[in-house]
Amino acid sequence: MRIPLDRQNALPLYQQIERYLREQILSGQLAPETRLPASRQLAQELGVSRITVNNAYAQLESEGLLYSREGSGVYVLPRTPAPPVADAAGAIWPLWQQAIERDDPPYESRATPPRRIVAHPKPIAFTGVGDRREFPIKEFVRSIQDVVRRDGAAALAYGGLDQGYTPLRTTLTHVLGSQGIQAHPDHVLITSGSQQALALVCQVLLKPGDVVLVESPTYNLALELFRVLDLQIVGAPVDEQGMCVERLEPLLQRRHPRLIYTIPNFQNPTGSCLSGGRRRQLVALADRYNIPVLEDDFVGDLRYEGRVQPALKTLDPGGRVIYTGTFSKMLMPGLRVGFLVAEGPVFKRLVDMKRVSDLTTPTLMQRALEAYVNVGRYQAHVRRSGRLYRQRRDAMLAAIRRHLPAETEVIPPHGGLFIWLRLPEGLSCLDLLPLAAEAGVEYAPGTRFFPIPADGESYLRLNFATQPPAEIEEGIRRLASALHRLNRSVVAPAQKQHPSRR
Ligand code: PMP
């Protein structure tokens, strides 16, 4: 075999041999199963030591390009076919993959048909969770440093594959107690965000084909979870007082749901809050029909005015309601720390399911969070966020009144993060989407939040917490100009007020 070697080159000879052979193999010049010369022979031909050739062969073997057959020599290893690029036309997948491909298209694209969007250089996003500029990074880093100094390696160990860091669970029960929810640390399970809590509950309680009853509209990634798990989704309407519980009974009788999923406080996406009466009615119905309730309290402590309503969990005589909360909205979503509270046999199942899902929620984050809450930094941050977001809500409501057509309907939320907006008759949030993107404003289209996506065409969800007032004003102005382009007949700014709605 003739391998060109350059003895003046700084690259060692074994690497030159290696490089040459690698190129020959990858380009197909050396076909699979070709037998290479014995190392003694090649060393002689090239005038190098046998060790040099052996080194080159060993490296190529470790890369999976060569293999040795006992007593027979070194061969070119047949290459595993490169995986076809996803979506490449004509890609040949194995049959089981093709079966998956024949299934439904991805859920998100089913809810929101793709449209061509021209990007704006500086878009204002009324999407996402909180305002990153307001994340209490310095204070949280201080808590992380304190914990590492205090706990050393334990802060980065598995830390008990059970319910989560005990002091954090205890601290959580104090936080919950201040909101009127009595929970024992033994009934708290730390999860990787409340999204994991939702998934665990579904995995433990439901099987494909089961019916889950939700508010319609509801949190889009809960809907996606239910769809991914092949559950049937039944929607109950929502008004200004939250889920219309008085319309539930016929649904319960006809559809036999195996779970009721509800967001009673400042619901995602409508911002509405379930009234006290309906809360009692819902727990009573769930009890009568023997249906577990999953209460998702993702921003319960972000109330700007009005009376606190009791959590469904506090109305539960025991074991009927599974409660979940999160630090994503009040603090930072990347922490991935949420929790659930439950009692009875289901709790043990949830703990088991959590353990086999991801062993544990990152220990360092659990400990740092506990330290952060315990020195009062969390409470101070929540109070500050409350003041800030309230101002932003007011700024957005005022901007909507100033710039959007009078026929646009909003229900002012008393807390949380979202304003749910109904477009003037006949306008579609999906048609508006590319125009809004061009104008430089982003929102979540209503279609994402409904069990039947088309039901949401007239709606959009605006997160007012992500932008300061000046950006809110500008963003809504841009939305107004996009709407104006969508329908030139809807131009007159709010002259006519809807006192009950605006
Ligand atoms: N529930 C609701 C209503 C949400 O809006 C979200 C996140 N947007 C979650 C649960 C999940 O949040 P996380 O997993 O970050 O706690």
The CATH topology label of the largest domain is Aspartate Aminotransferase, domain 2
Instruction: Strand order, main sheet: write it out.
Output: 4-11-10-9-8-5-6-7
Principal-axis shape: globular
Individual helix count: 17
Overall tally of domains: 3
What key attributes describe this structure?
single chain, 502 residues, alpha/beta, Arc Repressor Mutant, subunit A, Aspartate Aminotransferase, domain 1, Aspartate Aminotransferase, domain 2, 4-stranded antiparallel beta sheet, 17 helices, 41% helix, disordered C terminus
3D structure, described in words:
The chain is α/β, with parallel strands linked by helices and 502 residues long. The protein folds into 3 domains: 64 residues, Arc Repressor Mutant, subunit A; 139 residues, Aspartate Aminotransferase, domain 1 (Alpha-Beta Complex), CATH 3.90.1150; 237 residues, Aspartate Aminotransferase, domain 2 (3-Layer(aba) Sandwich), CATH 3.40.640. The protein has 17 helices and 16 strands. The strands form 4 sheets. The chain has an 8-stranded mixed β-sheet with strand order 4-11-10-9-8-5-6-7, with helices on both faces. It has a 4-stranded antiparallel β-sheet with strand order 12-13-16-15. A hairpin with a 7-residue loop joins strand 12 and strand 13. Helix 2 packs across helix 3. The longest helix has 27 residues. It is globular. The termini are far apart. The C terminus is likely disordered. It binds 4'-deoxy-4'-aminopyridoxal-5'-phosphate. The site of 4'-deoxy-4'-aminopyridoxal-5'-phosphate has 12 residues, from helix 8.
